[in-house]
Design brief:
single chain; about 230 residues; alpha/beta; Rossmann fold; eight-stranded mixed beta sheet; globular; binds S-adenosylmethionine; Methyltransf_11; 2-polyprenyl-6-hydroxyphenyl methylase / 3-demethylubiquinone-9 3-methyltransferase
């Protein structure tokens, strides 16, 4: 079954392996963190936080890092990396309105059947003036082919069936839903650096940089502040 929630329980041992099947999530977390400004005494809510891969990138940046996920196995690991862990669904988060200075939705929206519900929840949690940071996969033929048809077949580095093509994110719908809740999004396409990837795959590099790319038709970041 595509997008099987049990997958994250079965693969719990993979989260923090830099060369495991979730390696790309580490690279994406680093790229996501670059969109988050330093703060003091601020709260960041990380929706679908998984095992807390964003945590090392927030160290010393002035945030209490609150992670919401429905995988208990992932949350236990997130907690061991300093994340205040909340077991729950991103469409019904047990946290107060406006509690967050920053809400992050990294590689989660393409796993959620109710895009409008997840966006509404993200924006509800955000205080006026707060920052929403998203990265996800676009609902396009190109993305289906690259991110599912091709990438999920790379042995050792990917998980077959992790994505359901029907849940890839319609960019216009994402922008419209965010706008409805007072957040004007800016979108930017990103891709892994090919040179870094080849070095990493050869066992030499430790990580792979994500670079901006002209199209948002595959993997993209989005960010915007909530209207005051
Ligand atoms: C691809 S992982 C991304 C994890 C993390 N954001 C990262 O980038 O490392 C997707 C995560 O979303 C969680 N998830 C999927 N659907 C969810 C839902 N409806 N509510 C809460 N968590 C969900 C999964 O358990 C998994 O940990």
């Amino acid at each position: 079954m595509p997008n099987d929630p049990g997958l994250y329980e079965r693969l719990a041992g993979e989260w923090w392996r830099p060369r495991g099947v979730f390696a790309m999530l580490h690279w994406l977390a680093a790229a996501r963190a670059e969109l988050i400004p330093p703060a003091r005494g601020a709260v960041l809510v990380d929706l679908g936080c998984g095992a807390g891969l964003l945590a090392p990138h927030l160290e010393g940046r002035g945030y209490a890092h609150v992670g919401v996920d429905r995988s208990a196995a992932a949350l236990r690991q997130a907690a061991s990396h300093g994340v205040h862990s909340v077991l729950g669904d991103v469409c019904a988060v047990p946290l107060a309105d406006g509690c967050a200075d920053v809400v992050v939705a990294g590689e989660i929206l393409e796993h959620v059947p109710d895009l409008a519900g997840a966006v509404a929840e993200a924006c509800r949690l955000l205080r006026p003036g707060g920052l929403l940071v998203v990265d996800t996969l676009a609902a396009t033929m190109l993305c289906r082919w690259l991110a599912i048809g091709l990438a999920e077949r790379i042995p050792r580095y990917a998980v077959r069936g992790v994505h359901d093509p029907a849940l890839l994110v319609d960019r216009d719908a994402l922008v419209a839903e965010c706008a409805r809740h007072g957040v004007e999004l800016t979108l930017r396409g990103i891709r892994p650096s090919v040179a870094d990837f080849l070095r990493w795959a050869a066992g030499r590099g430790e990580s792979v940089r994500m670079l901006p790319v002209a199209t948002t038709a595959v993997l993209f970041q989005a960010w915007g502040r909530k209207r005051v």
